[in-house]
Amino acid sequence: MNFSWYLGFGWGSIILFALFGAGAYYYAEGWLHWLFYAFFAVVAAYMLTRFRLYRSEPWRRVHQRAAIILSDLIKQDGNGKHKPDRIAISRQLAEKLLGSCAAAAINENGTLTDAGRKAYYRELADTYSIVFTRNLPEEKHPEAIKSIMKDIEASEFGPDIVIAVAIEKQYGRLEAARYLLAMASGYAK
Fold first, then answer.
1. 40 band by pLDDT with thresholds 50, 70 and 90
2. Is the pTM of this model over 0.90?
3. Could you give the CA distance from residue 39 to residue 25 in angstroms, rounded to a whole number?
4. Please, are residues 157 and 89 in contact by the beta-carbon 8 Å criterion?
C-alpha cells in the first residue's frame, strides 16, 4: 500500500516516526532520550506539514500519484541508459492515471502533442485568468497574463499535460488552472 497517495508522506516517514518514538520511550533518561525525542518531533512536524500541504491543494494528490507512476515508468523504460521517449511515457502515464478509454480520447483529440498541449494551457489561462492575477493590482493583470502565455509558449512537451487533464477530470478545470500556476511558479516539483 502506498500511503503517499493518501497522506502525502510514505513508509519511510512512518518507520522513522515509530523508531524515534520507541527510542524516546525506551531510553527514558539522559541525552539519548532527548536526541530521540528531538528527531521524533522533527519527523512528526515533517509528516504533519506534508499532510496539510497534500490536503490543502487537491492538485497535489494527483501530481504526487503521477510522479510515483512516472518514476516507475522511467525505470522500466531502460533504467536510465538512454533518454526516455516523452510521448510514449506520457501515453503510458495517461493509461495508468486516467484509464485506457480516457487515455485514448486525449490521444485522439491531439492533447498529447506539443500544439495541443499549448492550446489546452492557453485556454486554461484565458478562461481562469483570475487564478494568475488574484494577488496583483489591476494594472498588472495584462502583464501577468502575457507572462504566463510566454511561459506556455516556451515550455517543452512532457507528462505535465497528462497530469493537468487528470486533475481536470477529478477536480475540475479551475484546479487544473491552479496546477498550471504551480508549474509556472515552480511549486509543482
1. very high
2. no
3. 13
4. no
> Which residue type does 160 have?
D
Cα–Cα dist 71/82, whole Å: 15
Judge whether 54 and 64 are in contact, CB under 8 Å: yes
Q: Are 158 and 112 in contact (CB under 8 A)?
A: no
Q: How far apart are CA 1 and CA 150, in angstroms?
A: 41
Beta-carbon count within 10 A of 115 CB: 10
d(CA 74, CA 103): 18
Q: Could you give the CA distance from residue 186 to residue 189 in angstroms, rounded to a whole number?
A: 7
CA distance 127 to 4: 32
**In angstroms, how far is CA 182 from the centroid of its own chain?**
9
Residue whose C-alpha cell is 499549448: 118
Q: Using CA atoms, how far apart are residues 180 and 160, in angstroms rounded to an integer?
A: 9
* CB contact set of 168 (below 8 Å; sequence gap of 6+): 175, 176
Question: For 59-105, how does the pLDDT look when each residue is reduced to its tens digit (9 = 90+)?
Answer: 888 888 888 888 888 887 665 566 667 888 888 888 988 888 888 88
Residue 75 in grid coordinates? 525505470
